């Protein structure tokens, strides 16, 4: 289907409007010139009928004087062939004329324009043409008086048939022709100026179109820059700025998507690795039990079963953590906010890890002021946060080290700090710490799932977890819980 560009459509609409306006202007110019001509002719000949009526006696007490009428008509035709003279009675009926046979198409003239003329209303005033059924022409009229009484009218058509035949041959005024040519020239110049203006106005749009055609979002995260131009404060300038912002946002979103895709791949790879190791170990010990079960001693059988059970616990824990992360990231978990004591929660969590810490020779310590305000959060989810943080801290704290839980009341929050004396986290690994897997000394922290779960849970509470840089300490995490419901 044939389509036009915006510039061509604007030019076409402008050309049509210009043509209509030019045609209207020419029609108005012709009409104005015609009305001016009628006004001038009627103004100059306004008193013609009155002079004729005062100088020539055309009616007496006996009625019309045919001889005087014929002499008058002959004189006027010689002086001005375009003038047509008619004698009307008091009711407007034609009682005398010099029209050729069968040319008189009316036998009566409307008296309304005659009365307006005699009353001195503004010109031009047009009246009936006796030689036409629908034409109306300028005239001069004067009452005919007999014995002091109005007996009829002298009705003079100023532009008669002779004038019409001359005008029909194309004898228009030079001024009118000049005006028509001037309007045509101006219309042509306006059309050229309009085309140039539309091309100039739509140039930024063409520039935007070119930039958009070059912008392949699937090929590159970096959009092509819009060509620099002088800043504009109009709608097109606003469109250019909006388009540039859109390009920037699309590029940022694409980079974020690429980063998330890379993180997803790393997560899947790490989870696969962490699952493969215990599954391989579990498979190996079960195979040994299956093949050599009868030849193994009871002690060996119990040891192999214990190792297989431990590996199965690891697989189950990873699967459970992955399922929990999926539910958190997809909004399946809604926090139930309640008021509870953070100090009591810390004591409960510490008791769960006392045996593990004692086995590894790690000291667990809780630091809190005497008076600790209650907080508002989901008790179960916050317990999960502390459990993940303590589990990570214990797994990465060497024997003889320490893990500390501390409470610090603030203005509107209660800060909870979990610190260990392990190797800490290198600065190069801190960017995106809670969004991607990372390793410390070659060992992954729970496949990256533990801290991701912590991050997602605290996001549901409108809280933020931070990794603090404390001299002499390992990894130090801090987050705050609201003191208001």
Walkthrough of the structure:
By secondary structure, the chain is an alpha+beta fold. The protein has three domains: 112 residues, Beta-Lactamase (2-Layer Sandwich); 93 residues, Signal transduction histidine kinase, dimerisation/phosphotransfer (DHp) domain (Helix Hairpins, Orthogonal Bundle), CATH 1.10.287; 145 residues, Heat Shock Protein 90 (2-Layer Sandwich), CATH 3.30.565. Helices cover 53% and strands 16% of the residues. The two termini are 64 Å apart. About 2% of the residues have low confidence.
Give me the secondary-structure topology.
Blueprint: H1 6-44, H2 48-55, E1 59-60, E2 63-64, H3 66-79, E3 84-89, E4 94-97, H4 111-118, E5 126-128, E6 136-146, E7 149-157, H5 161-168, H6 174-201, H7 203-214, H8 235-292, H9 298-329, E8 338-340, H10 342-360, E9 363-367, E10 375-377, H11 379-395, E11 402-409, E12 413-420, E13 439-440, E14 443-444, H12 449-460, E15 466-468, E16 476-482
Parallel strand pairs: 9-11
Antiparallel strand pairs: 1-2, 3-4, 3-7, 5-6, 6-7, 8-10, 11-12, 12-16, 13-14, 15-16
Helix pairs in contact: 1-6, 8-9, 9-12, 10-11, 11-12
């Amino acid at each position: 289907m044939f389509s036009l560009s915006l510039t061509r459509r604007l030019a076409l609409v402008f050309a049509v409007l210009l043509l209509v306006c030019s045609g209207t202007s020419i029609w108005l110019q012709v009409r104005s010139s015609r009305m001016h001509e009628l006004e001038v002719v009627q103004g100059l000949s306004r008193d013609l009928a009155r002079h004729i009526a005062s100088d020539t006696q055309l009616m007496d007490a006996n009625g019309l004087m045919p001889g005087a009428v014929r002499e008058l008509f002959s004189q006027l035709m010689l002086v001005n062939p375009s003038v047509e003279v008619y004698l009307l009675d008091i009711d407007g009926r034609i009682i005398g004329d010099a029209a050729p046979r069968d040319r008189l198409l009316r036998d009566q003239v409307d008296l309304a324009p005659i009365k307006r003329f005699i009353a001195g209303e503004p010109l031009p005033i047009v009246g009936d043409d006796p030689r036409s059924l629908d034409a109306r022409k300028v005239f001069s009229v004067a009452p005919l008086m007999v014995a002091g009484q109005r007996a009829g009218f002298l009705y003079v058509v100023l532009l008669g048939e002779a004038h019409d035949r001359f005008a029909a041959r194309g004898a228009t005024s030079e001024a009118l022709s000049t005006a028509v040519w001037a309007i045509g020239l101006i219309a042509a110049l306006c059309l050229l100026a309009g085309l140039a203006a539309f091309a100039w106005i739509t140039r930024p749009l063409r520039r935007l179109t070119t930039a958009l055609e070059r912008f392949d979002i699937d090929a590159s995260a970096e959009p092509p820059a819009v060509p620099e131009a002088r800043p504009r404060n109009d709608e097109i300038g606003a469109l250019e700025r909006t388009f540039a912002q859109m390009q920037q946002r699309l590029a940022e979103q694409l980079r974020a998507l690429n980063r998330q895709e890379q993180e997803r791949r790393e997560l899947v790879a790490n989870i696969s690795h962490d699952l493969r190791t215990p599954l391989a170990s579990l498979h190996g010990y079960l195979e040994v039990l299956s093949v050599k079960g009868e030849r193994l001693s009871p002690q060996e059988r119990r040891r192999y079963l214990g190792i297989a059970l431990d590996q199965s616990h690891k697989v189950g824990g990873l699967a459970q953590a992955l399922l929990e992360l999926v539910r958190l990231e997809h909004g399946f978990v809604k926090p139930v906010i309640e008021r509870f004591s953070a100090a009591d929660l810390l004591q409960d969590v510490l008791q769960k890890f006392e045996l593990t810490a004692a086995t590894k020779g790690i000291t667990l310590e809780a630091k809190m002021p005497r008076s600790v305000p209650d907080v508002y959060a989901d008790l179960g989810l916050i317990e999960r946060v502390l459990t993940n943080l303590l589990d990570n801290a214990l797994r990465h704290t060497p024997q003889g080290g320490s893990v500390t839980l501390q409470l610090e009341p603030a203005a509107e929050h209660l800060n909870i700090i979990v610190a260990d004396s392990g190797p800490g986290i290198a600065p190069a690994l801190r960017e995106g710490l809670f969004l991607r897997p990372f390793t410390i000394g070659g060992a992954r922290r729970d496949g990256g799932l533990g801290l991701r779960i912590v991050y997602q849970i605290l996001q549901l509470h409108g809280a933020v977890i931070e990794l603090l840089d404390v001299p002499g300490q390992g990894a130090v995490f801090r987050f705050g819980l609201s003191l208001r419901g």
